[in-house]
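Blackboard transcription, Thursday session:
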Amino acid sequence: MSNFMLSRRGFLKTASGAALLLVGYQAAKIWLDGDDENYLPFLEGEVPQALSIKEFAVLSSVVQCIVGVASFATVSTAEARTAARIDLELLHQGGKLLQDIKDSLLVVEFGTYLEGHGKRFTQLSTEQQHRFLLNLKESSITLQRQVYSGLRFLTVFFYYSDERTWPTLGYQSPWQPIKFYEGGNRIENLPPLSTALKESSLIKEDSK
Amino acid sequence: MIIEGNNVNRSYDEEVDVVIIGSGCGGATVAKQLAAQGHSVLILEQGGYFTAQRGDLDQRSDNMLARIDGGRGLHTSVNSEIALMYGNCVGGASVHYWADSWRMPKDRCDAIAATGVTGHSYEELLPYFEQIEKDLNVHFAAPEYYNTMNLLFNKGAESLGWHTEPTPQARRGCVKSGHCYQGCSYDAKQSQLVTHIPAAIDAGARLMSDCHVETITRNSKGVATGVEAVFVDRASSRPNGHRLKVKAQIVVLAAGGYSSSVVWLRSKLPNGSGMVGKNFLCNPNTFLYGLYNQEIKLWENIPAATGTSAFRLATYKDGKYVEGGYLLHPNQLQPEFLAVTLPGFGEDHRKLVSQLPHIGSVVSWIDDELPGEISLDKNGDPEYHYQLRGVDELKARDSLKKQAQLLFATGAKEVIVPDTAGTRLQSLKEIDLFDTLPINDGNYLFGAPHPAGTLRMGNDPATSVVASNHEAHEVTNLFVTDPSVFPMQPSVDPSISIMAWSYVAAKEINTRLQEGLFK
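(Written on the board underneath:)
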């Protein structure tokens, strides 16, 4: 069976490696060796639990791009803490799914160089990010579509399982009262926003 | 008695007649039967114990995936082609099933008998079907339970000349909440959680939840002697430091189609045929969305009060596939899953989900024949290999065509394909695109709700894993009673078939125990 099928993980690993080679030593050095400070502004006070600061920052940008700009009637991805909920779920999952998402975020952050942007995903404008994800979605390369689909699935599920989004779906609500679950992944399961990180983010924003 | 392993504060040593791994349709049924016959029975369930009475089944998709679904509802095959849909809770997958309750059709029983399997003919299963249907209150839904999509389905099928039939439902006092897949908050859906498990407990069986079986133990002659397990913290799924050892005359493996072969492989049980984990089938499902002017509200009432088996059996001409090989039903998804499965992102996706109440859907379960494989990776974690191909791909493409026909016939102004590209059809004239639409390699995520086949039953130990009496060819006193033993898919929702086959297994085990061959 395995002879005629690609392993998603194997594929992601191979492609991640190729991407790293292609974008060069400097980009890989940024990702692997530090420079968290550049990514702190994206955290908006969240404290990553499963992902690194850099991975979480990329995820936050991806989530925002996938959901799109919130209209006045909807909740933003930051308010819905969508990236943090995904991060918490990845903490529960561990193993292959966590590694797949880490690999996917790496592909997103540096795959932009392969398209000639000369910048990382998190450094692109909203329009450029949208175009990049669109290219992933429409890519003839299975890996790129899988990266898009995996990140999209988690984003949309966790954003639209926030009850504040339901009015935009024309959905009233479940019939039963909610019951807290210790193993859950809802906002009430998340740690509080970090004041320190939030302040750090603001400082970084101010200094831009 | 139910002991929630999540709360245990000591390790256990147990000695029983029968230890059963898994509490779904297979394990619960065997437990009920054997406990009623006076045997000491211990059921071990890896997942947690969640009940309507305690308010656990709170209808939130995020909470409920985390509580009751295997892989917390997010696992896929290695190539991302199928979403693994299975239970991880007391009651197993029946807690999230739709309650569709078909008997295994006689033609499929005959086909299985033709492979050499004995004791599972339609006539032999008939009394079990009847008993199960009585116990689970299987009936046809009254008209008030037909939601808008169900009514449209019948109208569309009629206009196309396809016969429809009511789908047998295992429900009692349904309140039409529509939250079947999140676990019934009203104990109306007759899952194992509210039927065979309580019956087994009433008859004296005990159940330990949050209990992860590490290995099936054997003696020096290779005979199964029990299990070793660890209790896990429910929230984190990590071992809580307490262990369980069970000595048993009979070990029943009923961890489900996704997990029993994994337990087998991890236990390093013999695999002389090389068939353990092979023959992996899963009824991949195809579905399409229709955008209507009228309100549908797909999430209301019961999922599939009706359907058609007009295409259940594939037809061939001169050896070439013509059509069919799937069931066709109205579909139901809760809003969050509708949002996830509607294609696109950004503003395009927002526009689409803003029309959610006007989205309808139909779904097919493909009667797959070309198997995948379940194996372990280097860390001992399961890997699921599956790729839709060959005649199964033809069935999937044909099912998509029939779905589009039905949606347009019922007034859909647009048909939306839940593929990565977000393909849309404006009219039936475009239907031939399904002949070539990319649906492999991550372009389309198939739901895979009915895993089967990886511990295949058969008379030849060289080509199968268990014998017709459900006992492993190579491990005396180990019986398998879940869909892992099916040599082929039942071609309908498998729950009643799993239970009926488990009646056969329980009878065989009871005979063995009464003969006292173990003493």
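Lecturer's comment: The CA atoms of residues 218 and 225 of chain B lie 5 Å apart.
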